[in-house]
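new request in #modeling-help
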Amino acid sequence: MALATVEGRIYVNEAGRHVAEDVWVFGWLYHRRDKGKLQFLLVRDGTGIIQCVVSKADVDEATWQQAAELTQESSVKVYGTVRQDPRAPGGYELLLKRLEVVQIAKDYPITPKEHGVDFLMDHRHLWLRSSRQHAILRVRHEIIRAIRDFFDERGFVLLDAPIFTPAACEGTTTLFETDYFGQKVYLTQSGQLYMEAGAMAFGKVYCFGPAFRAERSKTRRHLIEFWMVEPEVAYFDLDDDMRLAEELIEYLVQRVLERKRQELEVLERDLAPLEKIRAPFPRISYDEAARILEEAGTGFRFGDDFGGTDETVLSERFDRPVIVHRYPAAVKAFYMKNDPEQPDRALCMDILAPEGYGEIVGGGQREDDLEILERKIEAHNLPRKAFEWYLDLRRYGTVPHAGFGLGIERTVAWICGLSHVRETIPFPRMLYRLEP
RNA sequence: UCCGGCGUAGCUCAAUUGGCAGAGCGGGUGGCUGUUAACCACUAGGUUGGAGGUUCGAGUCCUCCCGCCGGAGCCA
């Protein structure tokens, strides 16, 4: 279905269906080369890049001159005959007949040569036009679409959680505080507590939205604002939860392999490790993980949560994501249910992505007993009043339930094989970087 | 916040022990009928992040400040 509203206008990715036809392409000049009485204009329109051949013999002098004056990222409308030609990048080219210049762009800052991270981040609004960023963000789009498909196919209801919250979901991390008509409120760091309410109402729910963490983290795996999908299911235990999470991850990887090969190629992603991502994933307990780390000598001490290097060491032992379960309850959030067989352990799990990409999933079974939960809220020094509604969920028809959160940017970084999450979101928010 | 590194043309970088600030890309001008980050010739372009100091002389050494990058902690 063509969206073009002008007679004869096509998008670049439709060129193959219009061979030998005269068409318009509206876009921007990506690059220009000339060779005597020939000019090659690479025109991008968002769906792809097509080479336009301008032959001095075929166009009038004014058109030839206009084409010669085009600069990088000038906006243009080109009209010509679509041809199949093996010499053209992408296989198709446009033999130019007419040219309309919308605007000549002066001194576009991003050239086809190499640039530093700082410069590119300062020009993120323009950097989005380059083909590598296109590939990454198209993979992101596909992953988001696949997430929705996965849950929708399984009968989950999308239930959006609020962004403004009166209290912390997890007391441990720092929150962004703001003013809500004179009342202190915070930007959400997770929609989970609301999803628990949703699960008691709809059985199977998920939310998909941004999360904000005011942590002064400066690593390749951190953003201040990131996106997360959080399913929550009633009558689910930890094992059910692990199965759902690994099924989702397998689904996402396979979907990208199936539909975004070209993008992965642009990114020079090694596909072999991705092909191996099939459920079930290995499961190890915190104790087993701790033994591995103590042998490896990472400096890890039993009882701690894992650090970045610990996660890398663990994930490198497996060719698939690895599920680590039953952490010490002391290092985990108040809402986690304790393991009845080992009361000092929480019924929780983290999934570590392969190739050192770190934790992409965190979740587990929630505490469903009113009295235990009340004691935990107290023990964690949380404001009881803000959690009354949450405690209601345990007063009125409480059931075992579980869920998890999957971080979009880390998942995209892993699947694309990137060295930093900053390129996986259109406009990253990082420590000391708020613009553009 | 802590530890480490870096800051030279619009961009990416070079500059010997402290001794004439340079190259490629991009821009400009000219040439070439199949280029693939084309190529060739010519050309313009600098308060070496900022302030102070040492020295006959500082891009280079010292002090402070600013910015960025990487890592740690914390986390998805």
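bot summary: The two ends of chain A are 34 Å apart (CA to CA).
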